[in-house]
Amino acid sequence: MTSSVNPSPAASPDGTSGDVTSGGIRTVVVPAAGLGTRFLPATKTVPKELLPVVDTPGIELIASEAAQAGASRLAVVTSPRKQGIMEFFDRDELLEDTLESRGKTEQLNKVRAVNEMITAVSVNQDRPLGLGHAIGCAEGALDDDEDSFAVLLPDDLVLPFGVMNEMIKVRQRYGGTVLCGFEVPEDEVSNYGVFDIADPGDEDAVDDDRVCTVTGMVEKPDVEDAPSTIVATGRYLLDRSIFDALRRTKPGKGGEIQITDAIEILIAEGHPVHVYIHKGGRHDLGNPGGFIRACVDFALDSETYGPSLKRWLQNRLEE
């Protein structure tokens, strides 16, 4: 189900709303206004977020992750040329009736799944001015009583699903903003945004081997300048104060407003910011190489496709 931005509390399909009073989340923001140029010519007509990982569009995987984290509203930040994303969340009664009349129950359930898991609302970003700008566009999608919200970047699949639930627990314990990070080999840090974290003996440090206090962020540093080997990935649990920080963030290269700059403002003003270090895996759906790996990974785990694909791959690699 889709709608335009609505200021009233969002209810999930079962009639409940996200429990923001106990530290949970109600709204997940999904920035999806990009042009998808790495996937041209396919993305000339099909939004990148609708390209299927085996048989499930990337945007549905994100919607499922959001619902599993307790969210009831998916605020999709998009542009007029990508309205196909929002159409994906609309019911197709003719298709459903046809599948039902033909007894295709499995396919019918797949078609209905996304409509039953979460309510999607459209947020317009008229110009591509950076991730921070996209997140700022979604402020009107939140209810007045929401003091936090999540951001899931559709280019990033963080596995296994459930990392946002752990990030919510971190916020419940420490407050403020919580980010998701991975440890990478030292020679790979230049490919990522890298966290500067408090040393174990510092006053701001926390006693948790999976959580670190963030004291700063460095975007794609040289190896010798990297403050740590903990790098950012596309999962954010943001305190609502981020919107005020974004309004005070000066545009950077290309006139873009970066979320990392806004987070730096919060850190400088004493807001708690922590990173949860995830020990699972990740797929980058933002480039064809990463997308292919995700498709193979998901297909190998499939009871339908896995066994035959594994045999084919083994034979192909032996040629």
From TrEMBL:
BP-aspect Gene Ontology terms: UDP-alpha-D-glucose metabolic process
Keywords of the record: Nucleotidyltransferase, Transferase
Segments of this protein annotated with the region Disordered: 1-23
Catalyzed reactions per annotation: alpha-D-glucose 1-phosphate + UTP + H(+) = UDP-alpha-D-glucose + diphosphate
Regions crossing the membrane: none
The protein's Enzyme Commission number: 2.7.7.9
Pfam family, one: NTP_transferase
MF terms (GO), sorted A to Z: UTP:glucose-1-phosphate uridylyltransferase activity
Coiled-coil regions listed in the entry: none
Enzyme category, top tier: transferase
Ranges of biased composition (kind: Polar residues): 1-20
Every Nucleotidyl transferase domain range: 29-295
Family: Belongs to the UDPGP type 2 family.
Name of this protein: UTP--glucose-1-phosphate uridylyltransferase
Native organism: Candidatus Corynebacterium faecigallinarum
Lineage: Bacteria, Bacillati, Actinomycetota, Actinomycetes, Mycobacteriales
